[in-house]
Design a protein that fits this description.
By secondary structure, the protein is an all-alpha fold. The protein contains twelve helices and no strands. Helices cover 70% and strands 0% of the residues.
Length: 295
């Protein structure tokens, strides 16, 4: 979020954009090296590209296609790094191995990217066998996700964790922590076919609204659209509540950070920092992220 805010500042002032991108590159690469998360890469790159597109100059289809091709070629390397670290990447790029198109296709786990269809089929099968419709119960995590489990040890598990036990109990997680229910699967599980029709309509309407914000809402609208666009892509996997919570993780710091620079920001930061010290014993990350400057 901090990188995106700095990029917005550079785009608005029309200077320093290149330096901001140059400084952000090692930050993004370092986070990927630590986490091995491809979504984290997209989380850094996609909002930045959309901000450049709406605030500086439109990104043409040729450049967009070239970027997509580069990402597709690197996809197997991302998987190799997550599975085995740098040594796995070295083996994957070793000329002696001489990976052909079929091996490269398999190494990128391309076929397994269709697991959302598997989840949808599992939901259809479960409902056909008598599993009850949930009528919105899978979304209840939105009401309690902000409550720490340390305060509520018996807090219900997220539906993304429950889904595998309920509908794919015999499947092997293969090192994963949960099965994605898919957006279509979760909508069907809640409200049958009507849920799919209304849910996808609302998703399209929301995306059009954020696109209009990007067109007419200035820098803030462009950044909001960037986060919403990425969340919509990720939402295809489900679970709905979990993806909405990830969106809030981006929007709340982006909204709070400029507030800290206004009069009274020092008092707010001091109060919240002290509260975190008393409750959790840690306030450094909070201050580092929000305490930019005070006037």
């Amino acid at each position: 979020v901090g990188f995106h805010l700095l990029l917005l500042r550079a785009l608005v002032l029309r200077r320093g954009t290149g330096w901001t991108l140059l400084l952000g590159a090692p930050l993004v690469a370092g986070l990927f090296a630590i986490t091995g998360s491809k979504f984290l890469l997209l989380r850094a790159v996609v909002p930045a590209l959309l901000c450049v597109h709406f605030l500086r100059r439109p990104i043409g289809f040729r450049l967009l296609g070239a970027l997509a091709a580069v990402f597709a070629l690197l996809f197997p390397l991302f998987y190799a790094y997550r599975a085995g670290g740098p040594e796995a990447v070295r083996l994957a790029t070793d000329p002696a191995v001489a990976l052909g198109p079929a091996e490269w296709f398999q190494g990128g786990n391309i076929l397994t990217r269709g697991y959302d269809a598997d989840s949808f089929i599992a939901v259809l099968d479960g409902i056909g066998r008598g599993a009850p419709l949930q009528f919105g119960r899978t979304l209840l995590d939105l009401l309690v996700f902000f409550v720490p489990r340390a305060w509520w040890p018996d807090k219900p598990m997220s539906f993304s964790v429950q889904f595998g036990d309920q509908f794919l109990a015999s499947a092997d997680l293969g090192g994963l922590t949960y099965f994605s229910p898919s957006l279509a699967g979760e909508l069907f599980l809640n409200f049958h076919v009507v849920g799919i029709a209304i849910g996808f309509f609302l998703l399209g309407a929301a995306m059009r609204a954020t696109w209009l914000m990007a067109r007419h809402g200035g820098p803030a609208g462009a950044l909001f659209h960037g986060y919403a666009y990425l969340s919509a892509i990720h939402l295809v996997e489900g679970a709905i509540a979990a993806k909405f919570e990830f969106l809030l993780m981006d929007l709340v710091p982006a909204w709070l950070a400029p507030k800290i620079t206004q009069p009274g920001g020092a008092y707010l930061t001091g109060f919240l920092g002290t509260a975190l010290i008393l409750v959790a014993g840690v306030s450094g990350p909070f201050i580092d992220q929000f305490f930019v400057r005070t006037d």
